[in-house]
Amino acid sequence: MSLNRVGLYLQDTHDLRSGLDTIRYAEEKGFDGVWQAESRLVRDAIVPMAAYAAVSEKIKVGSGVINNWTRNIGLLAATLLTLDDLAPDRIICGIGAWWDPLAKNVGIERKKPLKAMRETVEVLRRLLNMERVTFHGEFHHVDGIELDVVHGRREARNVPIYIGATGPKMMELAGVISDGVVMNYCVPPDYSARMLEHLENGVKKAGRSLDDLDRPQLVVCSIDHDENKALDRSRELLTQYLAQQPHIAKASGVSQEVVQEIQSILTWPATHEQIHSAKHLVPDELISRITASGTPEQAKAKVQEYLDHGATCPILYSVGGDVNLLIDTFSPL
Q1: Cis peptide before 65, with omega less than 30 degrees from 0?
Q2: How far apart, in Å, are the Cα atoms of 312 and each of 66, 180, 185, 221, 223?
Q3: Is residue 47 part of a domain?
Q4: Assign residue 118 a region: left if phi > 0, alpha if psi is -120 to 50, beta otherwise?
């Protein structure tokens, strides 16, 4: 398998300082982008993105993904402008609708998520285009605001907006309003293919074609020359995500009985001991179906399945083990 583009996805399993060395190595090996997660209450995306941008020269730096509820729209635009000052034309705003119960537990009522996302993207894009914006919607109210740069570049900023979409309605909306869509992980390749049908419905409404939209696919990736070790690393991740992120559990195709049994063992937040106690409920078959786990050859074959089902490039989430082995395995060079 030969890849022209490949991205690296970082979440919270890595030490931040060692992650900087990982970014440098990925860039050296020809990786196209690095994406920083912001999902659980564990690690902010913006601080690591700034660090990655500062220690690299060419690699794109994306949020994978921030949510559209917790940052004021003016602050969000200013944050992305600041990152673009640090790494011009290399920043990607990946943004998603977040998920319950986490949003609810911090006081966010995620009503009308499609309308909220539409308003966010519209106002954010206009601000990054250096327009003076007045907008009164249901979720955003701004009066005559602009990114008032006095010292620095006044030109419109090239910060593409990618929507992290899992469900069909958000996927269709992404086709209408976004520059790209970040396809979620822990789903089988055929699920992604079905979602692309909804994405295509959206791009047609916007008078575009599917080829106009970038479609990177997040892929949980665990590589080891010992297949069992690789599978077990992914097993722990799936145990936690199937219990705590219901939208991913639903998309993965796992039975509700298994999800409920895992949930009965894990609290919020989950402890390492709880994950270890529940991980036997995640079978090898499921790991192989919804992740790229195993030997380097097995992982490459699985990633190819996602590309064959419509993804434009993989964004690989290393869940442990030797991340340099993963980078070497998928290096485009």
Answers
A1: yes
A2: 21, 10, 14, 17, 22
A3: no
A4: alpha
The bridge status of strand 133-136 relative to strand 141-145 is antiparallel
Task: Tell me how far apart the alpha carbons of residues 218 and 26 are, in angstroms, rounded to a whole number.
Answer: 16
Report, as an integer, the average pLDDT of 224-247: 87
pTM summary value: 0.92
Contact in structure between 270 and 279 (CB atoms under 8 Å):
no
**Burial letters 181-216, b for 16+ CB under 10 A, else e:** bbbbbbbbbebbebbbebbbebbeeeeeebeebbbb
Coil/strand/helix, residue 20: helix
Read off the DSSP letter of residue 157: P
Per the structure, the complete domain to which residue 236 belongs is given by: 226-294
Dump pLDDT digits (tens) for 279-309.
888 889 989 999 999 999 999 999 999 999 9
- Domain total for the chain? 1
